[in-house]
Amino acid sequence: MNNKIYDFVGKKKIWFIISLALIAAIALFSVIRGVEIALEFKGGSIVSYSYEGDADIKSYQSEIEDYLQTPVNIQEGENLASDSNSFSISFSNNNGLSPEMQGGLTALLTEKFADNNIELLDSNDVNPTSGREFFIKCIIVSILAAILIIVYIAFRFKKISGWSAGVCAVIALIHNLIFVFGAFVVLGYEINSNFVAVVLTILGYSVNDTIVVYDRIRENKATMPKSTSITELVNTSTSQSLRRSIRTSITTVATMLIVSVVAYIFGVNSILSFSIPMIVGMIAGTYASLCIASPLWVWWNEKRAVSKKTK
Predict the structure, then answer these.
(1) In a 10 Å sphere around its CB, with 0-12 CB exposed, 13-18 middle and 19+ buried, how is residue 203 labelled?
(2) Could you say which residues of the chain have pLDDT below 70?
(3) Residue 36: C-alpha distances to residues 62, 73, 277 (Å)
(4) From edge to edge, which strands make up the β-sheet containing 72-79?
(5) Which helix (DSSP H) or strand (DSSP E) does residue 80 occupy?
(6) 254, 292, 291: which is closest to 275 by C-alpha?
(7) pLDDT at residue number 2
(8) Among 127, 128, 44, 130, which residue's Cα sits nearest to residue 89?
(9) CA 235 to CA 83: how far, in whole Å?
(10) Measured over all CA atoms, what is the biggest interatomic distance in the chain, rounded to whole angstroms?
(11) Would you state the CATH architecture of domain 12-38+129-310?
(12) How is domain 44-126 classified at the architecture level of CATH?
């Protein structure tokens, strides 16, 4: 157990200002840079080609975009079936890719890479309906989870004003998810199924961390003198939970760092877009459990106490 008591509550204004400043920066960055939405959520087309030899496909991205009249995303890989290289061009459109446009795109690529034997592998239009339904269902699940968290904490921690504790836990959770969203935006990753997976994973980790702190507050309230102030109670309980929270976070963060390094070496961006936001979410979650949820709960109860005295 950690014997040193840290003044988490006394520095609550600093924690709140830091979080609000970073959230404002994320919002500003999102407006300026824009948010990349995956085709599965907004609809579009994906065209895949194979080629031989070496070719810098991305060097002609601007010309491809001029032809299609829309921004495109080019991903290169290997065609294991024919032991050749491959690449895919994905872009958003409302009307699908017509045979004429597809033929023109193939002709353009064949002209630019005349020595690479460009061949069309596949062409698909992506319907956004299923992706949007999936995204909406995830939002509904998250909202229901937040409600259940408030109810669960309200009953489990009713001796320490559980309703306010539950609301503060959900606010801390939203804080963490904003940081996950910020990681996707700042790093230029698409909002796709990986984003949903990270959000749902962080939801579980963050709630568990916060409940551990609340559990310590409840235990200490029963054993510490009644004259103990709410600030001292929370500072003691949070300090006692500090090592456990940090150890849990370090274990997951270290694992994700190893995964990120391996994924970067082998160029697996799909894994990077999960592991790096997970690292951000875990750090933000530990910070929020210690520096946001409990100090916010103290502030809430102090305001309520002042309000009762005034009445």
Answers:
(1) buried
(2) 1-3, 78-83, 94-96, 128-131, 311
(3) 18, 11, 15
(4) 72-79, 84-91, 44-51, 119-126
(5) none
(6) 254
(7) 47
(8) 44
(9) 62
(10) 84
(11) Up-down Bundle (1.20)
(12) 2-Layer Sandwich (3.30)
